[in-house]
């Protein structure tokens, strides 16, 4: 098993999918839910599964929740339980709490009480919309509401030019972190790096600057 320890509280579709993927990647995940049948089903996919009410501070303490590297609260519809659980985790000193928000107001509260907030449906819809309008975006990681890392096809007009000639940083205001070329990857390319047709750029920058880069031919 890999050394990072994860716990997922709330085994709906999101929580279950998250656990399946982490387990597939070789991580040890503790699955928590207050519904007995749900917990029994989770034993199939998680290293450990515990039935408990996550709003019970003593119960969370007794399983040593503080020692987990990341705890994900994926209770969506029961907003009060989601907020209470997040608050308790924060007070117990959990290093990193990620919480799933149902709507903006819920998200704002979770953020105030120390969670990194995700909106899976909204985020997925935004990603899908962006990839639908542009064939060039391959993937995107949002670092903050304003900044992202985007993997995109290099615009055709870049072919045969170096990053400095293109002015990726000076004119376009983004940083190219890596260039993928077939099966190879050029990490931290220098300004003199030439771009070929078919290259994939991994670029970091403000969303509006990245958007402008994507729209180039
Ligand atoms: P998804 O969209 O991911 O399917 P959801 O957003 O609809 O899920 P909910 O149905 O609110 O999420 O809850 C997900 C899980 O959280 C359920 O399995 C539920 O039993 C569990 N849950 C709700 N409240 C608590 C609680 N206080 N303690 C532990 N688990 C809880």
Automatic annotation (TrEMBL):
Top-level division of the source organism's lineage: Bacteria
Biological process terms in GO annotation: potassium ion transport
Domain RCK C-terminal: 135-217
Chain ranges of the RCK N-terminal domain: 3-120
GO molecular function, one term: monoatomic cation transmembrane transporter activity
PROSITE patterns referenced in this protein's UniProt entry, alphabetically: RCK_C, RCK_N
Pfam families noted in UniProt: TrkA_C (PF02080), TrkA_N (PF02254)
Protein known as: Trk system potassium uptake protein TrkA
């Amino acid at each position: 098993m890999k050394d990072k320890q994860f716990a997922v509280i709330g085994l709906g579709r999101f929580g279950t999918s998250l656990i399946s993927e982490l387990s597939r990647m070789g991580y040890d995940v503790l699955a928590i839910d207050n519904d007995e049948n749900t917990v029994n089903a989770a034993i199939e996919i998680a290293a450990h599964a515990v039935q408990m009410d996550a709003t019970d501070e003593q119960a969370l303490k007794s399983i040593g929740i503080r020692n987990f590297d990341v705890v994900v609260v994926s209770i969506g519809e029961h907003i009060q339980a989601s907020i209470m659980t997040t608050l308790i985790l924060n007070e117990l000193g959990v290093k990193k709490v990620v919480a799933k928000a149902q709507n903006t107001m819920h998200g704002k509260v979770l953020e105030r009480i120390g969670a990194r907030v995700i909106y899976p449906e909204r985020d997925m819809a935004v990603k899908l919309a962006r990839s639908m309008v542009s064939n060039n975006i391959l993937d995107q990681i949002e670092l903050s509401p304003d900044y992202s890392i985007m993997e995109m096809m290099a615009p055709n007009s870049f072919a045969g030019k170096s990053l400095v000639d293109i002015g990726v940083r000076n004119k376009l205001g983004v940083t190219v972190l890596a260039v993928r070329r077939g099966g190879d990857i050029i990490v931290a390319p220098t300004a003199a790096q030439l771009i070929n047709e078919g290259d994939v750029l991994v670029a970091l920058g403000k969303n509006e600057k990245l958007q402008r880069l994507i729209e180039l031919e």
